[in-house]
Amino acid sequence: MPATVSAATAVPATTDKAGAAVMGGSQEVLTFTIGDQNYGLDLLSVREIRAWTDVTPLPNTPPFVRGVINLRGAVVPIFDLRVRLGGGVTQPTSANVVIVVEIGSESVGLLVDTVSDILALDASALQPVPATAADEEHTFLSALATHEERMVALIDVNRLFNRGVPSISAAA
Question: Which pTM value belongs to this model?
């Protein structure tokens, strides 16, 4: 059985008006890597983190749809986030992980390389995505943040699946 970590028990938090995880005036994000890039997701959208397991492929799906898994009786589509962000196809190994997120009332798994940590980012650390970054990858970003010596691109999961993509239900 794959190892799982529940995000709900990681760090207690309240929410701001936008629904972002907030603790003492900062936004909490789960950070992860794809290649040498650092990304983050709003901690409140994360349901759990799972080790990579084989998926059941589905016919006639977009290239970023890896397939589906059975998660405690629920069919959950697994998306290759590297492909969705405009990169190549991930060749999953036992080192890869799946971040299960809630989008509305549905769960979706995001295949990533590694999960890094949970950061509490001050609002002053969040910078807008530059207007020149209008390529496909950057349309999914809500902000950029610097933390220590790294830049973290914050992904808006709602934007990730609302731009000309079949509905999550149709992909599963």
Answer: 0.78
